[in-house]
Amino acid sequence: MRYKQYLLSLIGGWLAFTSVNAQTVDSSFQTRFNTKVELTTDKVTQLIFPTSIEKWRGGFNTELFVKEVYNNILYLQPLTSFEPSNLHVITADGANYSIDINYRDHITRSTYIYTIDDATIAPKLAVIAPEENESSTVLPYPTTTVHPATTTPPQKTTIRKILDEKDFIVNRSGVRYKNLSFRIAGIYYQADQLYFKCKVSNSTNIPYEFDYIGFNIQTRKQRKTTTANTEEIIPSDTYYESTTVNNKEITCVFVLKKFTVGNDHTLVISIVEKDGGRNMVLHITDDILLQARNI
Fold this sequence. Notes:
Elements: H1 2-29, E1 35-39, E2 45-48, E3 53-58, E4 65-70, E5 73-78, E6 85-91, E7 96-103, E8 111-113, E9 126-128, E10 135-137, H2 154-164, E11 174-177, E12 180-190, E13 193-202, E14 208-219, E15 229-233, E16 237-240, E17 244-245, E18 249-257, E19 265-273, E20 280-284, H3 286-289, E21 293-294
Parallel strand pairs: 1-7, 2-8, 12-21
Antiparallel strand pairs: 2-5, 3-6, 4-5, 6-7, 9-10, 11-12, 12-13, 13-18, 14-15, 14-17, 14-19, 16-18, 19-20
């Protein structure tokens, strides 16, 4: 009888212990990934997230900061010293990142790379399959190698044709970083779609693997103390010959909804290296876009 009472009390104590610890984990999860970022006036700091930035808000006067968003990268540079503050970033996968920021006269780190594990609120990865009602996991990889499909929907057929076309844009349509280059080889239009044929080359012996190629419309501002507003454009279809460039040139095609840019706008294309700092940014003006050919 005593043994039975002892066993019941032992089980009850274990259940109480696990319940307390579960509550502790749940309550601490919201804050344990809160990170601290140090900023200074003479350096630009970049915060790189696993997926594209959907929304962000800071607890500081944004007019006192140079700030830009390129897909999954947030650039920040204060124009003056500031009191300790914070910012929240929500990415396209539903993750929330809570970040404390502080001013320092000198900083030794200007790049912060976040993973899903750093999220204050975890991303929404579970997707219910409508037919089987079972969940599957979708991982937010920004870039994958996509070859033209064997089926022939209109966009895939056009991409196949574009891959066979000769390059025709050669002036002011590229950017170089040491022995790497990114350029626009051709722009085509069909119905309400624009097709960008791009080339990435690497003449070094070190493989270049890019994480993503992002498109943004940038609106120029009159004030020199603030940066331009940017609006991300999400391609409706893409083709990558490869995402790793090893001493060669590869071709990419991006399909975007038709748009135009004027004197106060520019198209900004950014290519970001995966787990590296060899990033390139290309500004495309309307005179280059007007070279687009019907396909």
